[in-house]
Write a structure and sequence with these properties.
mainly beta; 121 residues
Length: 121
């Protein structure tokens, strides 16, 4: 973690389940939380593609704890697997556009909204 006051990096230990190593994800700040969405993972040799993640993980900066967030209506994680997308916080929502799912060889062109005011934990 980067400490702006000291202009130094500090190695942190986490007290909960951290996300898998990934690239092509987005990370945004919402209040005192880091919001990580999607990304790409390890190579899948038989498919000649990379694993694509659909998880939306939030780290509370004060407690250094990660949690998986469920924004679905029925309790099922129905987010799209995506990497190389863009995302921004707008008010109390995470706005996501585009992305690539290499597992299904699909390029997304829609906008998806995650309303933090209505999230389930």
């Amino acid at each position: 973690m980067y400490e702006h006051a000291n202009a130094k990096w500090k190695l942190e230990s986490y007290s909960s389940d951290v996300p898998d190593v990934r690239f092509g994800h987005t990370m945004n700040i919402y209040g005192n939380q880091l919001v990580v969405l999607g990304g790409g993972g390890p190579q899948i040799p038989r498919m000649k593609s990379r694993k694509a993640y659909s998880d939306l993980r939030i780290m509370d900066i004060a407690t250094m704890k990660w949690s998986d967030q469920d924004f679905s209506k029925d309790g099922k994680h129905d987010r799209l697997k995506r990497m190389n997308h863009c995302a921004a916080i707008l008010g109390g929502m995470l706005v996501v556009h585009g992305g690539l799912n290499t597992e299904e060889n699909y390029l997304y062109d829609q906008i998806e909204l995650f309303d933090f005011g209505k999230k389930k934990n």
